[in-house]
Design brief:
By secondary structure, this protein is an alpha/beta fold. The chain has a single domain, classed as Carbon-nitrogen hydrolase (Nitrilase/N-carbamoyl-D-aminoacid amidohydrolase, 4-Layer Sandwich), CATH 3.60.110.10. Helix content is 31%, strand content 20%. It contains ten helices and eleven strands. The chain has helices spanning 21-37, 56-59, 66-75, 82-94, 169-176, 194-211, 224-230, 234-237, 274-282, 326-344, and strands at 6-13, 42-44, 97-106, 109-117, 123-128, 151-153, 156-162, 182-187, 214-219, 247-249, 265-272. The protein has a six-stranded mixed β-sheet with strand order 5-4-3-2-1-11. A five-stranded mixed β-sheet has the order 6-7-8-9-10, with helices on one face. A hairpin with a 2-residue loop joins strand 6 and strand 7. Helix 1 packs parallel to helix 4 (82-94).
Amino acid sequence: MTHSPTVRVAAVQIAPDLTSRAGTMQKVLNAIADAAAKGVKLIVFPETFVPWYPYFSFVLPPVQSGREHLRLYDEAVTVPGPETEAVAAAARRAGMVVVLGINERDHGSLYNTQLVFDADGTLKLRRRKITPTFHERMIWGQGDGAGLKVVETAAGRVGALACWEHYNPLARYALMAQHEEIHAAQFPGSLVGPIFAEQIEVTIRHHALESGCFVVNATGWLSEEQIASVTPDAGLQNALRGGCMSAIVSPEGKHVVPPLTEGEGLLVADLDLGLIVKRKRMMDAVGHYARPELLHLVLDPRPAQPLHTDSPLTAGTETRSPSHGPFDDAADRASDQRAAVLRRAPV
């Protein structure tokens, strides 16, 4: 590790401005400034915090959600764009790694996107949630393997997943195998009820233990006025309460500071990165405790693209799919080997 052995980090539990992207962005910039005054070197915001998480999609039937869905399109973030430039500048001024969840607009589609800015303002990672959950599938498109990547930052090796991606053990293992030191987890908060907070806690503590890394988790928060603005139905409003578990967890699965489950606030903790080796000395799930000859993960890191172009074919040129790449070569070799075995097999 070339970075400092101790890193001060923060998890932000915060309410978005449900009326405008600009209002939420101001809250982001204010939180970065507040954290900088406390000496924070890495900060994590909630899932799709800018402009806001699409709470409407959880309580409104599809036939009634079109207006809010279109408003989300209007307020969503483009990458790069003015919002990413503003966050990059704030990260650079503070010398802080910033992990921000956004609704990303890419032409006619929205994505649940996580951005990791380094302390010099460089955008080190833009990843999209690989599988939106339940109601979210009517809001966001799917991400790809290109985002399952750990990046080197001024705070250490950082990986990120959103919400129920933490229930996908192979997605988590992909980051573990890249030796993440700080895992940035993001959940919407103010959703489902107290049981969701309990599930979040179990999930992030288990990942910290299994991966031998620190987890910094941020969840959002809605005020009672905001809940009422999403739906006037008192019964449905109950589905927009609870589910908050902003927390910072050590590689031993322990809370470094007490978690935040109600209201807005900023959790701050100093991480002793030496605890990572102490944990992995006993159990390194991707090292001495792994059995890759028995069990291993194959990740396709190529970005998914709807259009591939290739140069015109000439006579005598081998024809290949425009998407042909190293994984296709491996598949071709495996297919040839299987065919050879079949040809030798007795009838």
